[in-house]
Amino acid sequence: MAKKIVIIGGVAGGATAATRLRRLNEDDKIIMIEKGEYISFANCGMPYYIGDKITSRNNLMVQTVAGMSARYNLDIRNLSEVTKIDPQNNQVTVINHKTNETYTENFDDLVISTGAKPIVPNIPGLASATNVFTLRNIPDTDQIKNYLADENVKTATVVGGGFIGLEMMDNLRHLGLNVQLVEASDQVMPSLDFEMAQLLHAEINRKGVNLYLNNGLKEFQQTGQKLVLQDGTVLDSDLTILAIGVQPASELAQQAGIELGVKNTIKVNDKFQTNFSNIFAIGDVIQVENLIDHSETNIPLAGPANRQGRLVADVINGIPTKYPGIQGTSVVKVFDTTAASTGDNEKTLTRLGIDHNVIHIHPESNASYYPDSKPLDLKLIYGNDGRILGAQAVGEKYAEKRIDVISTAIKFGAKADQLAEIELSYAPPYSSAKDPVNFLGYVADDMINDGVKTIQWSEVDQLVDEGKYLLDVREDMEYSDGHIKGSHLVNLNTLRDHLDELPKDQTIYVYCRAGLRGYIGAKILLNNGFDVVNIDGGYLTYEAAHYQIKNHKF
Asked: How far apart are the first and last CA of the chain?
């Protein structure tokens, strides 16, 4: 028997659900109600259109109302807003903004895909500011694009260092503007740990962007032309983008008595059902399970929203399926650098009290002898049982490729040392014979099965303060270019000749540039009866973590 299925909201989740529902059943009446004009658009591409990297606005339009309606036999009602959900009577109240008509629509099943909305704090002076924008949809994009075309914008400010903030920073700089980024926390890109984010901070500075960390926005002055930060710093700004984050658009659900979860998300089970069995929810508005630590969370990403749209259609059509949760795999472009991650970061694991081990390596993106290979910084986090808990990569080439491999390994339950066993494609332009992912596995094997002990960059300064014995096994020139304070230099190739000069009554902390020579040195010392700890990631990790922000006058 045919059913009537109403979907609230289009774009990633709602539009995917609608088309999958039709492919599974030709008889059901499928109604998609979208309060905006555009039902399916590439919202992830909007910053790049603003920055003229995508030159045609039409390229952002994935589907039109006419085209999608015809192809999938859907009843699509754009510029129509659901103002009330009545779970008891299985109906929604709708206002048609084109005609101002209000009506009710019955349903057998309801899918809520209302997404998220920008966080806009109540900042003094915001109401009178005329040059402040958020970015979430096509009308927002048009407003920013038109303002840039019509006004003499020379200096732009981005408030917030997440995905949208970083992408807008990149694209506004691409337009030739002076750009400054304000972030209330001590780092951009919260999915990364601090030392990895520091690599982005350096790249941001290198590209001429001023970066204000640990310094939130306090006040707008002069209709938005002046920004006052928490520490009293005053910035000039011709254009300001608020990219502080998003929050679930769950008001409709809450008013209907639908149960909410963390951060006011809609609480659903593994079949996307709410506390009303015929009302489902998907996308940025829902609570999901973190696959790594099994906490309840909200991770608004386009990939999972599309996947959820497909799966909820399967559930409605009786196809056995369960949504397992989310790893939070993501990537962002920051000028010439790519930052990607999957799983939990170290901050999250520490906060949750989950024991973990960390590896940093600094290989090349591909064979070092091949032209244009680039440095790559990788971080792997795994539990005491060897289970991979997360990974992060920052580099100019192929960072996302390595994270995608590790994300897949996590999904299928691989242990950290098993990364060494993965057979990956190799040719000099693309990788090395020992792929960086394999190399992470080798290091994990050394730590798990060979008893190699390491400490992290964050522990080194305390060792220095306590006068511990630090051994640098690099070359003289490398040492002269920069070293950890108080460390002793003995070149690796001559280490065996100087064993009698090293202390056996205390732990020796060994490091090199990236970790490999430090490991070899540690093995030499271990085999000669010394108590040795390798400083994970070597001087490169330590140096990156200690980067100092360098701002300049516009």
From this structure: 67
Which positions ≥6 away from 162 have C-beta within 8 Å?
188, 189, 190, 243, 245
Cβ atoms of 448 and 385 closer than 8 Å = no
Q: Which strand (E) or helix (H) includes residue 380?
A: strand 376-382
> Token digits for 438?
């394999």
Q: Which of 474, 477, 471 is nearest to 499 (CA)?
A: 471
**Mean local confidence (pLDDT), 67-92:** 97
Dihedral sign from CA coordinates of 521, 526, 531, 533: positive
> 388 forms bridges with which residues in the sheet?
382
The average pLDDT across 8-15 equals 92
Evaluate if residue 63 carries a pLDDT over 90. Answer: no
Residues in contact with 214: Cβ distance below 8 Å, sequence separation at least 6, in sequence order: 183, 184, 185, 186
Cβ(173)–Cβ(207) under 8 Å?
yes
Q: CB-based contacts of 232: which residues, under 8 Å, 6+ apart?
A: none
Q: 14: Cβ–Cβ under 8 A, 6 or more apart, which residues?
A: 7, 8, 32, 34, 111, 113, 282, 283, 309
Contact 468, 510 (CB under 8 A): no
Average pLDDT over residues 247-266: 97
What long-range pairs does 86-94 form, CB within 8 A, spacing at least 24? Answer: 86/256, 87/256, 87/257, 87/258, 87/276, 87/279, 90/278, 92/6, 92/8, 92/33, 94/33
263-294 pLDDT, tens per residue?
999 999 999 999 999 999 999 999 999 999 99
Q: What residues are labeled active site?
A: 44
CB distance 377 to 362 below 8 Å: yes
532 vs 519: CA distance, rounded Å: 10
What per-residue confidence (pLDDT) applies to 79? 96
Amino acid letter at 460?
V
Q: Which region, left, alpha or beta, applies to residue 245 given φ > 0 means left and ψ of -120 to 50 means alpha?
A: left
Mean per-residue pLDDT for 180-202? 98
- In DSSP terms, which residues pair with 101 in a beta bridge? 96
pLDDT at 358: 98
327-373: pLDDT as tens digits: 999 999 999 999 999 999 999 999 999 999 999 999 999 999 999 99
Give the helix/strand (H/E) hosting 399.
Answer: helix 399-411
Edge-first strand listing for the sheet containing 234-236? 217-221, 226-229, 234-236
Q: Which helix (H) or strand (E) holds 227?
A: strand 226-229
